[in-house]
Write a structure and sequence with these properties.
The protein has seven helices and no strands. The protein is an all-alpha fold. It folds into two domains: 76 residues, no CATH class; 81 residues, no CATH class. The longest helix has 31 residues. The chain is globular, with a radius of gyration of 20 Å. This is Rhamnose/proton symporter RhaT.
């Protein structure tokens, strides 16, 4: 990210990031990393919420996933409502075209977010014989999130205008993450 920012012109930087705040970004990144670990702890503690032997392995974590994501939804909703009050933007919900677009993309984001954990549960169902991979499954999921988001960034030309050195570092980073996903199985 810092290499990308260094290779952009001043106009591109101003257009890309209007409210850049490095200290705030670091705090948010650290908090997000910590809360991601808490999310996994919630999934593990809730793993007993199922129908026991009647539930196939690949579906056993889904009730806990629902409860943990419900907590995240409530937290986000409260913060959004707070921001609506602070910014006096409650009227934006009444705008027809904006409302339909926002609802569509909210539903899409929620479906994609939940489906990644469905994929995690599905993967754990196949990894039950490997305690190492079961332990690292959430780390693998997070690494793949970074890989896929950066690949989409490349496809959508978010890295346009960056130097070849920056793109090389990005590609090497993606390759390292992909190898790290398979390395536990190789060891």
């Amino acid at each position: 990210g810092s290499m990308k920012a260094a290779s952009l012109s001043e106009e591109e930087k101003k257009a890309a990031v209007k409210d850049f705040n490095f200290p705030k970004g670091i705090v948010i990144a650290l908090l997000a990393g910590f809360m991601s670990g808490c999310f996994n702890v919630g999934l593990e503690f809730g793993s007993g919420i199922n129908f026991g032997d009647l539930t196939p392995d690949m579906y056993k974590t889904l009730p806990a996933t629902f409860l943990v994501t419900l907590g995240g939804f409530v937290t986000n909703a409260v913060y959004c409502f707070y921001q609506n009050g602070k910014n006096r933007t409650w009227g934006d919900y009444a705008k027809g075209s904006v409302w339909a677009n926002n609802m569509l993309f909210c539903l899409l984001a929620g479906a994609l977010w939940y489906s990644q954990f469905f994929g995690l549960a599905l993967g754990k169902g196949f990894l039950t014989e490997s305690p190492t991979l079961m332990t690292l499954s959430f780390c693998i999921l997070m690494a793949l999130n970074v890989v896929f988001s950066n690949v989409w960034g490349i496809i959508l030309k978010e890295w346009k205008g960056c130097s070849s050195k920056t793109i090389t570092v990005l590609v090497i980073g993606i390759a390292v993450l992909i190898v790290s996903c398979f390395l536990p199985q190789l060891i």
